[in-house]
Amino acid sequence: MGGGQTTVASVRNQELQYTNIYQEGGDYVTKDISKVLKTSQKLAESLKFNYGEAYVPAASQETFQVEVIGEVNPVEVTESYLAEIISARLKHVFEQIKQDLERRHLLDLPGGIVIIGGGAILPGVVELAQEIFGIPVKLYVPNQIGIRNPAFAHVISLSEYAGNLTDVDALAQAAVQGNEMLRQQPSNFVRPLQTQSISPSRITTQRDPLPQVEAETRVEPAIEVAQSQEQETKTEKLTDRARNWLGNLFD
To answer: Where is the Cell division protein FtsA C-terminal domain (predicted)?
Structure first.
């Protein structure tokens, strides 16, 4: 139960069976308090944690003062009335979750429901959820010293999961996620060569290995063709001279 949304995950035999996200969370409870009591959201957040109760039957009739926007004098509000505002939003979220879980027959799992997140800190959340779902509900509190708070349960679980990964698991996940380090092209180990352009008036030297290969590919065929034509010209001249010499000899 987070601030902006509520996430549901169903696990069976240590395998994830179902997940869903509901775009309502603790921030929506704060907005409801601010609208109903006509006060600022900052004060509404303070009222939620100082006097808030999610389960109406457990709320008292004690009153507290609320500064109302546009009013000079503060207004007295009972804890029971504040609990009705809070429980109305949480009931709406829990009922949506219940419908989806019943549709997939996931409420029949023997493990019940475990609640984590900052929205689960409010007193009475477990009692309200258990009343709506009709199955055992418990609040998970981390055992780490200094962070025994359900709000940190998600972060702690992700850290422990990442810490238990082996090098092979990490490498496999990096490959699946398309890590750039695993998609690099093999290095080019061609020795840098110096090439010259065909034009005698302009000589250029290439230092980069890749341009050198391209330059050599362009220049070498031209040089080979020129050398072949020169060889053919010399052969023709020798042939003509031999014919003339033989002709003069017979004459």
So the answer is: 168-251
